[in-house]
Amino acid sequence: MPTYPPLQACDILGTANPDLTGRLIRFFERAPQQPKPQVSHVGLIAASMPLIFAPVIEALATVRNRVMWDAYVKSKTPVRIWRPKTLTEGQKTRILAKANSYVGRKYGWIKIGAHAVDWLLSKLFSRDVYAARRVAGLDRYPICSWVVAQAYAAAGLYFGVEPGAAQPDDIDAYCASHPDKYELVWDLAPLI
């Protein structure tokens, strides 16, 4: 059995779901002149504990807590985990409070359509566009990247874009390009 790293509250989970939905998300989140996205889903680790027991807050059909072992260990889904290096206890408390405030809410399917519209506009104007996502920015119906970006924004932290514009790859790419702020704990491999 592999040795899994212990996880900490507020670690960021990224996955590259191999199914059609994951591949479509990675296709549509790519803006002009950007490299191919590597992740299609993000979540937030909700407590510090061994990986097999760690709860992750994710927006699926609803926003919910799942145990990493049940959700990802022994699946074929590649997982990446980023650890923020400089969070204070106060920031962690605000991040987790905001993320937990979404638990139980229904998934924001319309936001997926808004991402696709912005992708089309980005292709038309040859630059990243944040228009349809701004209009569809209903906090009541979150998507995965909304939960993570809004939770971090509650602590005054951002991923290089407005929280409502954040896509899974924006969060992943920001963490990768800021090694002074984020440490790679597990690199895009299945937890088997």
The first-to-last residue Cα distance is 8 Å
CATH class descriptor: Alpha Beta
* Number of helices, counting only DSSP H or I runs of 4 residues or more: 7
Return residue spans where pLDDT drops below 50 for at least 5 consecutive residues. none
Q: What is the H-and-E element order? A: EEHEEEEHEHHHHHE
CATH architecture: Alpha-Beta Complex
Q: Main beta sheet, described?
A: 6 strands, antiparallel
Structural class, from helix and strand content? alpha+beta
Strand order of the largest sheet: 6-5-3-2-7-8
CATH topology: endopeptidase fold (from Nostoc punctiforme)
Shape: globular
- For this structure, what is the CATH homologous superfamily? endopeptidase domain like (from Nostoc punctiforme)
Helix content: 25-40%
List keywords for this structure.
192 residues, alpha+beta, endopeptidase fold (from Nostoc punctiforme), six-stranded antiparallel sheet, two-stranded antiparallel sheet, 35% helix
Note down, in words, how this protein is organized.
The mean pLDDT is 82. The protein has helices at residues 20-28, 68-71, 89-101, 109-125, 132-135, 144-153, 168-177; strands at 6-7, 12-15, 41-45, 49-50, 55-59, 63-67, 79-84, 182-189. It has one domain: endopeptidase domain like (from Nostoc punctiforme) (endopeptidase fold (from Nostoc punctiforme)), CATH 3.90.1720. The chain starts with 5 loop residues before the first strand and ends with a strand. It has a six-stranded antiparallel sheet with strand order 6-5-3-2-7-8. The chain has a two-stranded antiparallel sheet with strand order 1-4. The protein has seven helices and eight strands, in the order E-E-H-E-E-E-E-H-E-H-H-H-H-H-E. With 192 residues, the protein is an alpha+beta fold.
